[in-house]
């Protein structure tokens, strides 16, 4: 509750006390604020109590939320637990026998920065990636093998976990953009907006043509934008046309080719 709400709760309860009614001659048809000045001792005291309760409620509430989220992540046998454990892997560090926790935590050695898991037919599939220049990046094959060996030691008996780490899915798009002729808009401006949108996507998140258009239309000078065709491909696979949405196979995407036609809005 807010400080104002706490103060009202305290004041209303105080007014209901028989001794208060008799001592102060309380009018039951009037509120506390209608009978006491804002600078009265009672009002100032209740405000101080209300402010303290509001702060305490926020501190306790935030802490409870934080603990609940942490317990959810740490609860064994869940996908969240596996994701957190995989990101806790430390390159070139030995895992003590019969434990799933390193004897010393070295965050610099925790090279798995992104992890997303799905389960199908009893098999956990994990997409993992490192980070380079603030963006997801492919982990080397030997590194993935080490992460796999680490997972084999910490996983539950009978659980199969398949790890993959690849280069970003290549994104291609053909766009028609109508712009305000009073603005000096270039195709590079549009390409930067496309790249920024792709980089803002959560790891293993869903790409959306509509969301991309929303991002492009935030550029000063853009009046109307339309995706004529978009596609994506992973590795050497044939590009797949995107109909509305797409989930990158690697977990993330980068702009490969953009064919952008700029047209003055005044000529529409």
Largest sheet data: 4 strands, mixed
Please report the total strand number as a whole number.
10
Poorly predicted parts = none
Rg (CA only): 29 Å
Write down the secondary-structure element order: HHHHHEEEHEEHEHEEEE
Distance between the termini: 53 Å
Number of helices: 8
Q: Structural class, from secondary structure content?
A: alpha+beta
Q: What level of helicity do the residues show?
A: 25-40%
Give the percentage of residues in beta strands: 15-25%
Whole-number mean pLDDT: 89
Shape call: flat
What does this protein look like?
Strand 7 and strand 8 form a beta hairpin. The model has no long low-confidence stretch (mean pLDDT 89). The strands form 3 sheets. Strands 1, 2, 3 and 4 form a 4-stranded mixed sheet that branches. This protein has a 4-stranded mixed sheet with strand order 8-7-5-10, covered by helices on one side. A two-stranded antiparallel ribbon has the order 6-9. By secondary structure, it is α+β, with helices and mostly antiparallel strands. It contains 8 helices and 10 strands. 38% of the residues lie in helices and 25% in strands.
Characteristics:
single chain, 268 residues, alpha+beta, four-stranded mixed beta sheet, 10 strands
Secondary-structure blueprint:
Elements: H1 3-15, H2 18-24, H3 32-35, H4 41-74, H5 79-87, E1 114-120, E2 123-132, E3 135-137, H6 141-154, E4 160-164, E5 169-179, H7 187-200, E6 207-208, H8 209-216, E7 222-233, E8 240-241, E9 245-246, E10 253-264
Parallel strand pairs: 2-4, 5-10
Antiparallel strand pairs: 1-2, 2-3, 5-7, 6-9, 7-8
